Amino acid sequence: MYLNGSMFQLILTLHSLELPQTSIYPVLMLGITTYFIILFCNLTIVVTICLNRNLHKPMYILLLNLPLNDAMGATSLFPQLLYSIWSQDRSISYSACLLQGFFVHLNSSASYLILTAMAYDRYIAICFPLRYGAILTTNNLVKIITSMWVFQFTVIIVLFSLLLPHQVCQTYMADLVCYNPSIMKLMCEDTRVNNIYGLFTIVFYHGLSLSVVAFTYIHILITCVTNKQSDAKIKALQTCGTHLVVFLFLEFNTLFPLLAHRSESVPAHLRRVFSISVLVFPPIVNPLIYGFKTKEIRQKMLTFFKNKISSV
């Protein structure tokens, strides 16, 4: 048992990566390359939107939050994971584990609210095109984004604050990354309140997101079906189709490991894979879908790189 005063000096041990000696450096290079690609792609989209006034529209301002969030999520995983691969040391301090868990959960919850806000934006743009400018004004956009981030920080701060009064009884964590359910398993006291609050946040985020996305997409589909302009219909369906695929992928990828912790029948290795994949695949896929595939962003990026190459 570790008393509260000494917990922040406590050293935990994460589950072994089980890498053969011959695979350490290839896996390390793969990890570094993946992290570099994630940062490069996401930050390229951020810089492109920020530097081009033509992209300072509600759709792109909301989109700006997604690569920032993806870069944050990848950074919560890769530096510590790459160090573990290089040093073959899976130890992490309790305070660093709490910090990593905080940003892992913040990334997941932010993804839901950002995609929900983007679905609402598409709903207004397609179903009420004439009122779009009046509804999504700069003032309203700032309110949406500010409320979204303040709410997320508040929910996750409370989630991890509930861990602080508890004493830790063991130091081995059977997961590859720190997050709330795995940390709770280290506690030697009753964590019923933590479980109830955790389940409440899961139900709230998933329920809110699913409800808003279902409502908006049903209305978007009805509008597209009744729209006589075939070009507008195809463009709207393509935009919404990719958004829906990304949302459903996130839904499954985050919900599975959280619920798997509450079931002994789910294989541990499967839970570990999903807990890592949600911090790897969305930051790679999202820039391709929302950034490079979006015509205006793609054109601005190509123009920027052409100008840089010609000036060298």
Report a brief summary of the structure.
The protein has 312 residues and is mostly helical. 75% of the residues lie in helices and 3% in strands. Strands 2-1-3 form a three-stranded mixed β-sheet.
List strands and helices in order, with pairings.
Blueprint: H1 4-7, E1 11-14, H2 24-51, H3 58-87, E2 91-93, H4 94-127, H5 132-135, H6 138-161, E3 172-173, H7 180-184, H8 192-226, H9 230-260, H10 268-277, H11 281-292, H12 295-311
Helix pairs in contact: 2-3, 2-11, 2-12, 3-4, 3-11, 4-6, 4-8, 4-9, 8-9, 9-10, 9-11
Q: How would you sum up this structure, described in words?
A:
Helix content is 75%, strand content 3%. Helix 3 packs antiparallel against helix 11, helix 9 packs across helix 10 and helix 9 packs antiparallel against helix 11. The chain is mostly helical and 312 residues long. The protein contains 12 helices and 3 strands; from the N terminus they run αβααβαααβαααααα.
State the main characteristics.
three-stranded mixed β-sheet, 3 strands, 312 residues, 12 helices, globular, 75% helix, mainly alpha
Instruction: Decide which structural class fits the backbone.
Output: mainly alpha
Q: In order across it, which strands form the biggest sheet?
A: 2-1-3
Mean pLDDT: 84
Using the CA coordinates, give the radius of gyration. 21 Å
Largest sheet: 3 strands, mixed
Question: Helical element count?
Answer: 12
Q: Segments where pLDDT lies below 50 for 5+ residues? A: none
